[in-house]
Amino acid sequence: MRDKKIGIPILLVVLTNVFVLIGVSSNRSGPPDAHLVLTERELSLSKIDDENSGMFLNINWDLPVFNLYNARHTETEYLDQEKLDEFGWDCPLEIRDTHHPCYHYRSSVKAYIVLEFGGEPWEKWLESQKKELESKQRALEKAENKNSRRTLEEDMERIRNIPTVKSRLFAVDFSPDPLKLRARYPDPSRFIILPGLIRMYYNLLKKEPVNKDNRGYRLRASINDILINKIYVPDEFHEFFETQVKAMPSPFTSYGFVLHKITPDTRPRFQATVNFGKRYEPWIESVALFQ
Amino acid sequence: MDLPKNRQEAQFRADRIHLFRDELNTLLSEKVILLSPAQQAAIQDYHQKLLGQYSTQFGTDTTEKEKKISAGMLALTLLGGFAICAGVFFMFYQFWGYLSSPVKISILVLSPLVFIGLMEVFARRETTPHYVTLCALLALACFVLNLNVLGYMFNITPSPNALLVWGLFGVSLAYLHGLRLLLALGLLSIIAFASAYLVTFRHYYWFNLFDRPEHFIVAGAFIFCVPFIFRHRIYSYFPPVYRGIGLLSILFSVMFLSLSGYGSYLPWNSDQVETLYEFIGIAGSGVVLWVGIRSNFHEMANIGLGFLCLFFYLKMVSWFWDSLPRWMFFMLLGAITIGLLILLKKFRARDRVHP
Fold first, then answer.
1. What interface predicted TM-score (ipTM) does this complex get?
2. Residue B353, domain member (yes or no)
């Protein structure tokens, strides 16, 4: 009897591993869902710590709103009924006050996020960068203090240089149905679909006239993160990164870049061809020095 | 002569024999009963033979000293086991970057199987469960590492199904050699999976499984009921583990909801939810304690008593901590406790008169 019972844990280990590897093979079979060449701007080399010899590339993405310190924005527009119906969430779009049971429940929802490479969001980001520069210029013209002027000039220099290092991946949409998203954004060389987390929350809605009786809260969504936010570097590419990439000095870090080290001549050190499979799980096909 | 089915039953019988011997000696010295030398020798020989058999077959402790050493060995097994498991994890992560993918996958798949094999070797050679438990813990740790690393290597979207598989693995190892620790770990993983799975029904991300404590109540209730549905003839010490883990899952969730009602499914505001769960917690703990005492389920009685005290103290803090000076608060707490003691003493005396 014990000999038969020992088969159960053994079978569990074997079958689970077979199932996982079949899933991996299925993800990578056939034409990929997306296929892009990304640079170090979008994929920064990550080393977890000295006690972990694994190597990963972090996926850097953002919303198309400029921020000098590269802090990622997460807020999106207010939700509409169509988007809410897609998620099948049974809370209303607007509530009167914070006593509503939906107000406090803020768990993350799994959804699929569309990241666009370059295109309109990049142009929008460049616009917001230009506005930021103009704002700094106006502040510089009014500044009287020498230290303030120096700080503003340094900030303006950095703002001018940031486009050379900024990731061109921007979140543009989300939905629980990835097939609907692919139908909406069909170009596999420009749009990546990845599983991610959306947090729905109620934001105070400003109504006129402003008084304590005329309040309301409107549902909004923030893209918390993508679930696969780093891609494992296969063993065959480790030497490339260890010997060629790391030997080159660079302002790029694990999660972005060091602001004061950026110059107009800063360039990424490498580029990687990344595929995203049927299950929206990525893998690195090849790597090369940046061209 | 009926042989015990497992080590626990053998140890229980061995302990009874020692107690019987001590009491018999006292009765004989106080001349309450008289036994002829032949009768005493027969009892002595019979018990000696039994204890020898149990020691050889089950590794039972035959003296008080052996028992103390065994308790120390058990503590060392647990500490050492968890330490080695952590060591295995960190060691793999230190060196995996230097290994090729086929080698990595081979190590990951084979390591739990190797420890299952070692478990069998020790089970045949040893009468005590310590090495078997160590190997089982390592097998489970290697299986957890196996799926984690495959997930990293192939960039797989995290899934709650891993919790189910780990849970089933732990439970299957437990039933192989009667290992309570593996059963407890397996059941905890299964409860976590059930809660995570229920969370995903509404599209919420499974990792937020602790946001809805009521799922743990449902899963805990199911685990609690298992030993009432499936009789355990061989491992008669497994039902307390099921009942204990099930009750802990239920009562911790009730306690959490009594402190913060936001995660409840009930269509009321958080204050109303917290009040309801406070009531359920106190009444429920009392019922668990009562049933545990009546049915002789020690783990139920202990858990019921523990949570009753916890709910009581939490309620006292919530009502009186801000409004009373501290000395008065603790005096009140002491007075209520002594009042309960007097009440329980009266119940005990009444129970003796009318059993």
1. 0.88
2. no
